[in-house]
């Protein structure tokens, strides 16, 4: 959460000329309301169902940079779809940098708790093994600008793209 998937993903698409999509944007469009509004009105389980649906609709689309929500990979079926869609990158940073980025806007619904810091690090710890499992490669963006992170993602994707050479 907050590692830069949306902002860096958009720059990556700019580098490659691919279309850019973000599952959070697709969810908000499909629902006609914002992510915080969906969480507040319907809860996380409902959000995860819509998230799965919009991801499923991307299957078969080529030439795409797709940013996801930070929790999309929690469902095994979503991990399976991602692996079939293309090269999967894990955009990471050190824990404090991630927390600082994730809390810049104060809008992330899962961090609306009494202790956002504790919540954030608990979620991160719960998710690390899943990120590791699904990703083809990882980029540590702690000391990278947005553009440098996008370039590192491109380098990694070109390296790992062999999985899709038939
Ligand atoms: N490499 C970076 N250096 C400094 N700030 C960054 C970097 N990457 C992203 N940020 C900043 O961190 C904040 C969160 O970025 P962004 O919204 O792109 O993250 P995200 O991974 O899409 O979050 P979410 O999981 O909520 O969808 C933004 O203010 C963004 O500009
Ligand atoms: O990390 C998460 O579970 C989330 C991250 C955001 O991108 C949104 O998908 C939503 O706020 C949930
Ligand atoms: Mg995002």
From TrEMBL:
Q: What is its EC number?
A: 2.7.1.71
Q: Which GO terms describe its molecular function?
A: ATP binding; magnesium ion binding; shikimate kinase activity
Cofactors: Mg(2+)
Query: One Gene Ontology cellular component annotation?
Result: cytosol
Q: Could you tell me which HAMAP family the record lists for this protein?
A: Shikimate_kinase (MF_00109)
Q: Which family does it belong to?
A: Belongs to the shikimate kinase family.
- PANTHER family the record matches: SHIKIMATE KINASE, SHIKIMATE KINASE 1, CHLOROPLASTIC
Q: What InterPro entries does its record include?
A: P-loop_NTPase (IPR027417), Shikimate/glucono_kinase (IPR031322), Shikimate_kinase/TSH1 (IPR000623), Shikimate_kinase_CS (IPR023000)
What's the record's note on cofactor binding? Binds 1 Mg(2+) ion per subunit.
Does the entry feature the keyword Transmembrane helix, yes or no?
A: no
Its GO biological process terms? amino acid biosynthetic process; aromatic amino acid family biosynthetic process; chorismate biosynthetic process
Binding of substrate, residues? 24, 48, 70, 127
Record function comment: Catalyzes the specific phosphorylation of the 3-hydroxyl group of shikimic acid using ATP as a cosubstrate.
- Entry annotated with the keyword Metal-binding: yes
The record ties this protein, via CDD domains, to:
SK
Q: Which UniProt keywords apply?
A: Amino-acid biosynthesis, Aromatic amino acid biosynthesis, ATP-binding, Cytoplasm, Kinase, Magnesium, Metal-binding, Nucleotide-binding, Transferase
Location in the cell: Cytoplasm
Query: Binding positions for ATP?
Result: 2-7, 108
Which proteins does it associate with, and in what oligomeric form? Monomer.
**What is the designated name of this protein?**
Shikimate kinase
Taxonomic path? Bacteria, Pseudomonadati, Verrucomicrobiota, Terrimicrobiia, Terrimicrobiales
Q: What class of enzyme is it?
A: transferase
Part of which pathway?
Metabolic intermediate biosynthesis; chorismate biosynthesis; chorismate from D-erythrose 4-phosphate and phosphoenolpyruvate: step 5/7
Q: Where does Mg(2+) bind?
A: 6
Gene label? aroK
């Amino acid at each position: 959460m907050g590692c830069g998937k949306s902002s860096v993903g958009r720059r990556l698409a700019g580098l490659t000329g691919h279309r850019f999509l973000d599952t959070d944007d697709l969810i908000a469009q499909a629902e006609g309301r914002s992510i915080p509004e969906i969480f507040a009105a319907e809860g996380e389980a409902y959000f995860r169902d819509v998230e799965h649906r919009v991801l499923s609709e991307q299957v078969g689309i080529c030439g795409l940079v797709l940013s996801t929500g930070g929790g999309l990979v929690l469902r095994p079926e979503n991990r399976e779809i991602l692996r079939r869609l293309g090269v999967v990158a894990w955009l990471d940073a050190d824990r404090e940098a991630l927390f600082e980025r994730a809390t810049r806007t104060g809008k992330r619904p899962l961090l609306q708790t009494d202790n956002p810091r504790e919540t954030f690090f608990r979620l991160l710890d719960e998710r690390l093994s899943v990120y590791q499992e699904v990703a083809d490669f990882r980029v540590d963006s702690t000391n990278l600008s947005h553009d440098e992170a996008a370039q590192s993602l491109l380098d990694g994707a070109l390296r790992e793209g062999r999985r899709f050479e038939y």
